[in-house]
Design brief:
Elements (H helix, E strand, L loop, with lengths): L6 E4 L5 E5 L2 H25 L7 H9 L5
Antiparallel strand pairs: 1-2
Length: about 70
């Protein structure tokens, strides 16, 4: 697990209301979220039962403006 160094903004009752992170840590979190979204999209695509077509055929259809 990655180590992060959060700082908290609190209200008058010491309830945490916001987090401040170093920009490098925030950018790493965004990269990780993007990677997770890609993994989820891949998993969803693999779970589909639709018929697959060869990659070259898919590229040709995209270039010709056809729906896949």
């Amino acid at each position: 697990m990655k180590i992060i160094h959060p700082e908290y903004i609190v209200d008058g009752n010491q309830n945490k209301k916001a987090v401040i992170l170093p920009i490098s840590e925030w950018e790493q979190i965004l990269d990780d979220v993007e990677e997770l979204e890609d993994i989820r999209a891949y998993d969803a695509a693999k779970a589909e039962t639709s018929e697959s077509i060869p990659f070259d055929q898919a590229v040709d259809e995209i270039r010709k403006g056809k729906a896949i």
